[in-house]
């Protein structure tokens, strides 16, 4: 048989497959409606395994078994997704309850903004970009910002991840602890400098202080000076101010050029972070579920049943809905050894019916799920 004749046969077989697929999906839809009436779950793992085994038993060529298994798994997954679209279409659920609670606005209302650090910090830079001209107040640490939201300040601005060192675990955990909502975000380019009191030279330095992230992001530069002592502080700008106040030429800070300017310090080295493409994503946190018009990003966290395939099944729910997950971060569940909850970012409009349906389905399958917010994605 020549290749052209073979391709014609493939076309005919594929045409038959389309007809069979459409017939199968219609029947799957009827099953979905029946499950809705009887309040039965969509998943029936025992039946799925038996179905796959029965079809594999029909094979005459055993070498085709792995491929048939993959095809059947995918066909079952698509069928269940179609059933869910029937079962949950227009049905109220957790996501609908959340969207009903959202306060929609053209832009976030004015207020007092809290952040961790002092002027000259990268967080303060994020505040100035997000809320130009508004009053802001610095706090001594991330948790102090969370404590102040809703009382001393209206919004908090906190770092959530860095492009060089990844997620900032403390902030993920504090979001859960305080039940706060994400209502916005800002991306700030981070260029670390080694700064010291005026007249200092590199040969004078014996100790370097900075926030742990600043030290980590400058680790290659610091490795070239192994005799320097290192000390973590609460904030990069606080480090710069401490150096200025101490007036000790042997102590330097890792901070921004802006901090050096504000606190009258010399810049001994610029751009000491190992990755020049270094950005930090800051989130805006509120005690109210607010949403700016045009919001195109959703954050949520969830815990899943501690069984094989639970994460893959959850990811398939979002994939089947055509939703793009841009981040997934795991954090330990402190009371359950070796179990985790997942922080997930999705590019989607939370008011879109398809998105609501997918989130409702995810909530049904999760052990626990909470939507943290819907907001506009920041541009780098």
Sketch the topology as an H/E string, one letter per element.
Answer: HHHHEEHEHEEHEEEHHEHEHEEEEHEEHE
Whole-angstrom Rg: 27 Å
Helical content band:
40-55%
How would you state the average pLDDT, rounded? Answer: 90
The number of helical elements comes to 13
Number of strands: 17
Q: What kind of sheet is the major sheet?
A: 6 strands, mixed
Distance between the termini: 56 Å
**Parts with pLDDT < 50 across at least 5 consecutive residues:** none
Q: What share of the residues does DSSP label as strand, in percent?
A: 25-35%
Query: Which class of secondary structure composition applies to the elements?
Result: alpha/beta
Overall geometry comes to elongated
Describe the structure.
The protein has 380 residues and is α/β, with parallel strands linked by helices. It has 13 helices and 17 strands. It has helices at residues 3-38, 45-57, 65-87, 94-101, 122-130, 142-148, 169-178, 212-217, 219-223, 236-246, 257-262, 310-320, 353-365, and strands at residues 103-105, 113-116, 136-139, 155-162, 166-167, 181-189, 193-196, 207-211, 229-233, 251-255, 266-269, 279-286, 290-292, 297-303, 324-332, 340-347, 368-375. Strands 2, 3, 4, 5, 6 and 12 form a six-stranded mixed sheet that branches. It has a five-stranded mixed sheet with strand order 9-8-10-7-11. A four-stranded antiparallel sheet has the order 15-16-14-17, covered by helices on one side. Strand 2, helix 5 and strand 3 (136-139) form a beta-alpha-beta unit. It is elongated. The mean pLDDT is 90.
């Amino acid at each position: 048989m020549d290749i052209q004749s073979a391709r014609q046969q493939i076309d005919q077989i594929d045409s038959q497959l389309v007809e069979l697929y459409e017939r199968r999906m219609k029947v799957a839809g009827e099953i979905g409606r029946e499950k809705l009436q009887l309040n039965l779950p969509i998943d029936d793992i025992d039946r799925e395994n038996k179905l796959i085994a029965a079809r594999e038993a029909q094979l005459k060529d055993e070498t085709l078994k792995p491929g048939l298994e993959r095809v059947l798994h995918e066909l079952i997954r698509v069928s269940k997704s179609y059933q869910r679209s029937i079962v949950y279409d227009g049905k109220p659920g957790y996501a609908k309850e959340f969207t009903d609670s959202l306060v929609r606005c053209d832009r976030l209302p004015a207020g007092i903004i809290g952040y961790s650090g002092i002027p000259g910090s990268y967080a303060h830079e994020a505040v100035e970009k997000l809320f130009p001209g508004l009053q802001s107040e610095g706090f001594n640490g991330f948790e102090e910002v969370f404590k102040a939201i809703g009382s001393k300040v209206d919004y908090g601005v906190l770092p959530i991840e860095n492009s060089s060192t990844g997620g900032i675990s403390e902030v993920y955990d504090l979001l859960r602890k305080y039940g706060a909502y994400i209502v916005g975000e800002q991306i700030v380019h981070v260029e670390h400098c080694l700064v010291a009191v005026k007249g200092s030279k590199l040969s004078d330095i014996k100790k370097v202080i900075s926030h742990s992230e600043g030290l980590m992001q400058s680790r290659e530069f610091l490795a070239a000076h192994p005799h320097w002592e290192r000390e973590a502080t609460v904030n990069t700008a606080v480090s710069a101010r401490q150096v200025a106040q101490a007036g000790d030429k042997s102590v330097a800070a890792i901070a921004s050029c802006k901090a050096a300017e504000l606190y009258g310090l010399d810049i001994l080295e610029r751009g000491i972070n190992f990755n020049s493409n270094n950005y930090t994503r800051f989130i805006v946190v509120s005690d109210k579920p607010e949403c700016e018009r045009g919001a195109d990003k959703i954050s949520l966290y969830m815990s899943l049943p501690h069984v094989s395939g639970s994460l893959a099944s959850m990811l398939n729910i979002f994939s089947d809905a055509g939703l793009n997950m841009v981040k997934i971060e795991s954090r330990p569940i402190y009371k359950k050894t070796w179990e985790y909850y997942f922080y997930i970012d999705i590019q989607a409009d939370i008011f879109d019916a398809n998105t609501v349906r997918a989130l409702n389905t995810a909530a049904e399958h999760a052990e626990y799920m909470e939507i943290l917010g819907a907001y506009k994605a920041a541009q780098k």
